[in-house]
Amino acid sequence: MRALLFFALVIGVFLVVLIISQRIRAFRAKQEQEDAHTQPEEPMVKCQHCGTHLPQKEAIVNEQGEIFCSQQHLELHHKP
Ligand SMILES: [Zn+2]
Question: 3, 10, 13, 47: least surrounded by Cβ within 10 Å?
Fold first, then answer.
C-alpha cells in the first residue's frame, strides 16, 4: 500500500513538472513571436542625401522635414 502511494506521488510530481515546463515553453514561444512581430514594424526612412534606409528613431530630421542618416549628410545636402 505504501509503495502504491509513493508511486502515485512520483507520478503527481512528474505531471506537475511536465505542466510547468510546457507553460514555460509556451510563454517563451509567445514572447519570441511578439519580438519577431515588433521588430519589422519599426518604420524605415530613407536618407535624402545618400538614399540609405534606416530606422526612423535613428534618423535626423531637419526643419523642412527632410530625413538624413547622419548630421554630416544633413549638412552636405544643403551645401551647393
Ligand atoms: Zn545619408
Answer: 3
